[in-house]
Amino acid sequence: SSKNERLAMSKEDRRSRLCMDRQNRIDARLRQMELDSKREAAHAIVEEKTKLKQHPPPPPPPSLSILHYI
């Protein structure tokens, strides 16, 4: 029976190790995706800023500023 118990143990062990492995892979992938999205967000922000420098927003139409003073 001890041999069977050992077999059962190793099978359980292997299964849990596989589970852990998969979990670790998923975690690593999620971390990578998070890093990628952060990098992309930073890139987008930089792009927006450079766009603003090259093309400043147009001044508000005069009618709006007149309304502003009334």
Structure description:
It is a single chain. By secondary structure, the protein is mainly α. It has one domain. Helix content is 87%, strand content 0%. The chain has 2 helices and no strands. The termini are far apart. 0% of the residues are buried. The model has no long low-confidence stretch (mean pLDDT 82).
Give the C-alpha Rg: 30 Å
Strand content: under 5%
Succession of helices and strands: HH
- Note poorly predicted spans: none
Count the domains.
Answer: 1
Terminal Cα separation, in Å? 94 Å
Mean pLDDT over the residues: 82
Overall helicity:
over 70%
Region (Disordered): 48-70
Describe the structure using short key phrases:
70 residues, mainly alpha
Secondary-structure map with pairings?
Elements: H1 2-54, H2 62-69
In brief:
Residues 48-70 are annotated as: Disordered. This protein has helices spanning 2-54, 62-69. With 70 residues, the protein is mainly α.
